[in-house]
Amino acid sequence: VQEFMTFTSALIVERTSVGTRASVKEQEYLCHVYVRNDNLSAVVISDTEYPQRVCFTLLDKVLEEFSRQVDSIDWPSGNPDTVSYKSLDIHLSKYQNPREADAMTKVQAELDETKIILHNTMESLLERGEKLDDLVAKSEVLGNQSKAFYKTARKQNSCCEIM
């Protein structure tokens, strides 16, 4: 898996223009790449469910912090054994849950949940409305029947009084 990720990342960085961001689908994964104007680049490989905007936010933060902590002379030849960049693990653990890492994603998720709740509430209101309509119809039938019963009873009583 690591070889696949390394090869794919290198290939995508190589084919991405300087100063651009791109997302490439590779099998069931999305590879998000950012190549800065200074040629420093990074790749995030995620599943299709993970929000693209959050990936690029992570890439921005990591590249910005990396460029401040690591001398640019070490960028081309650097690897985990020679370059000390400890913050990556912190960022990766923070971004495991995109809702917690990104305020916009959190707000969007809350809006989605609210939409679902409202939809369910509207459905139950409509069901109640249908039940209320049934009750209204039944009460109208009962009202008509009671009027008919009252008229019939009144006729019978008036018949009995004459005799």
Automatic annotation (TrEMBL):
Residues 1-96 form the Longin domain. It is found in: Cytoplasmic vesicle membrane; Golgi apparatus membrane. The keyword Lipoprotein applies. It is a lipid-anchor. Residues 103-163 form the V-SNARE coiled-coil homology domain. Its main location: membrane. Keywords: Coiled coil, Lipoprotein, Membrane, Methylation, Palmitate, Prenylation, Protein transport, Transport. Vesicular soluble NSF attachment protein receptor (v-SNARE) mediating vesicle docking and fusion to a specific acceptor cellular compartment. Functions in endoplasmic reticulum to Golgi transport; as part of a SNARE complex composed of GOSR1, GOSR2 and STX5. Functions in early/recycling endosome to TGN transport; as part of a SNARE complex composed of BET1L, GOSR1 and STX5. Has a S-palmitoyl transferase activity. Belongs to the synaptobrevin family. This is Palmitoyltransferase.
